[in-house]
Amino acid sequence: MKFPVEQFQGVRTPFYYYDRKLLEQTLDVINREAARYAGFHVHYAVKANVDPTVLGIVNAAGLGCDCVSGGEVEVCLKAGFPASKVVFAGVGKADWEINLALDADIACFNVESAPELDVINELAQAKGKVARVALRVNPNVDAHTHHYITTGLSENKFGISMDMLDMIVQHAHSLPNISFEGLHFHIGSQILDLQPFVDLCNTVNRLQDELAAKGVKIRTINVGGGLGCDYEHPDEHPIPDFASYFKIFAEHLVLHRDQELHFELGRSVVCQCGALISRVLYVKEGVKKKFVILDAGMSDLIRPALYEAHHNIENITAPANGPKEKYDVVGPICESSDTFGKDEVLPVTRRGDLVALRSAGAYGQIMASNYNCRRIPSSLVL
Ligand code: LLP
Fold it and tell me: Phi and psi dihedrals of 104, rounded to 5?
């Protein structure tokens, strides 16, 4: 990624920089690859990034959106996404959130339990509406990803277990203000080995056959998100391999007549187009180490502290071909986990240099907090 450093002058650090062109190219590839197959629909999982300009670009590309809170539903509607393309998941939807989504007439609730189904039915009844729902099934597929971001195992809190599915489908059919649309799945995030998606397809096929044998009609299948990004080599792989990803579903998932297949991609859409730009406050000599102390900390980008996630670190001020040194790159927050990289080899770094933390477009800015009474970082889309 080539950073327009001259345009960063005068912008208060730390801030998130988003490369508009890369985002648009990524969306073009998604649209082109999904369009190869009839009935494929892509939603953007807005939890990854709700920057208004980013949302505007995603909406302009025609993707729908996947929300996990009433706040996200509001943000999407405000950004201009049509309610008919909004789906709403989450294990704990509060009544006000359900009411808000009913009022907006969203496309579908992804329902995660029997009691939630009853509450949606009741609230829809009070409004004289019929809510479209898909049941989120826990497919017990191992996504082989970080244990904090795996969701499709039976030990996770998400979805309805396969043993109970049949009973809950019958129950959904018995409720007057519920329209049963289909099944929803999500196995986890940052998945680079695509085999778990094949496993998911096989499970979906089996469940579909079992339900079809009982005469249950399924209009939509939603397979969630999860496609990962190359955090180690963002310049070699700026756009995830959407071609292989969609092909897996085209080859392994048996769609019945007129069925729609929905996807909810978050990370893979926005990860590589974003970077957290920070300024070096001090270079400090330790006993055995040198520390680069940034003005960005875990309150701005929590992924390294929370998941031991790796983000490439680049000094975008110092000439790349000059002499190098080894540093621990840390933030200013009073926690040892406020560390972005250890023994990083960087060009000789000085106070005032700008540093980019790469691949931070997904789950970066949106997970920022006010910890230590720090400001939420702003953004710049160029
Ligand atoms: N659909 C559902 C129901 C989800 O729970 C998620 C993500 C997605 C779609 C989008 O998944 P993606 O395509 O982005 O992998 N904060 C963590 C990631 C948490 C993901 C939670 N669910 C991180 O920074 O790695």
Answer: -80, -15
